[in-house]
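Exercise 7.
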Amino acid sequence: MSSLIVEDDDVQGAPAASNWMQQITVEPEKLPSTLLLYGEPGGGKSSMIAAAPDVLFIAMEDGIQTLKTNLQVRSDVPVLPAPQTWLQFLEMLREFRTSKQKHPYKRLAIDALGGVEDLLVDHVVATEYAGKFADNKTGFMAWGGQGYKSLTPHWRMFLNEITALKQAGIQPIMIAHDGIVTRRSARTQDRDKEVPKLSPEVWALTEKHADMVLYLAHETEIDDTGKHAKGKSSDERFLFTCGDASFSAKNRHGLPPTISAGGSGEECWANLIKALKAARKESKHNV
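Solution. The predicted structure, written as tokens, is:
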């Protein structure tokens, strides 16, 4: 029977011993939190993030520019142009993080994340599927869209860049549109769930990685009487910080389940910061 004990000879090529036990720490790293904000179109996502101080946008679509033109956000919100390829996007992230040129930005907002996934799909189709997207046998969409599984190692590279931004003291902010997945059940009625509009493979990785997944939407009452549960919206908007059966959300800050979005992007951002400070104060009190 082979031994279950790992000997030195079993790890040939591994780095020299690093005295790992001496590297144990108890003090928390003071890193900014990765925020993923999603919600319905025109719901105020970009306006909210534009109100954050020291933020730079990577504009994957025209939304932030349109808001600036129509004076719905500050006209001096800084914006980088949309990258044209996946590799250009990664290059942009690395240059922002490692640039020797001093800049005032402490937050990087990617608006919107679906546009980044589109660049990755184009990249994978060109490099791994010979440019074939819809070919029924060998294309990206063959066998029920097998190509989406090929996105995961590349998306992990992107998330590694997000982690590197945090370690450099820059808060990553990802904005996404909302989509719907239907949870089918043999025992109860089918139920629709709001999630960011991303492929399941990409969303699974991103959800685990983010420190906050906040859902910006009008409050909804659920009607369960039919075959499909339906929602009816109110006039008041909220940031939802904890998910349930009808939408995805989470946070690692002890935030209240809902935060009022107020009547403007500025008020929405201010309310989030106020809630974060209150949650931290409460956590210190309970320790």
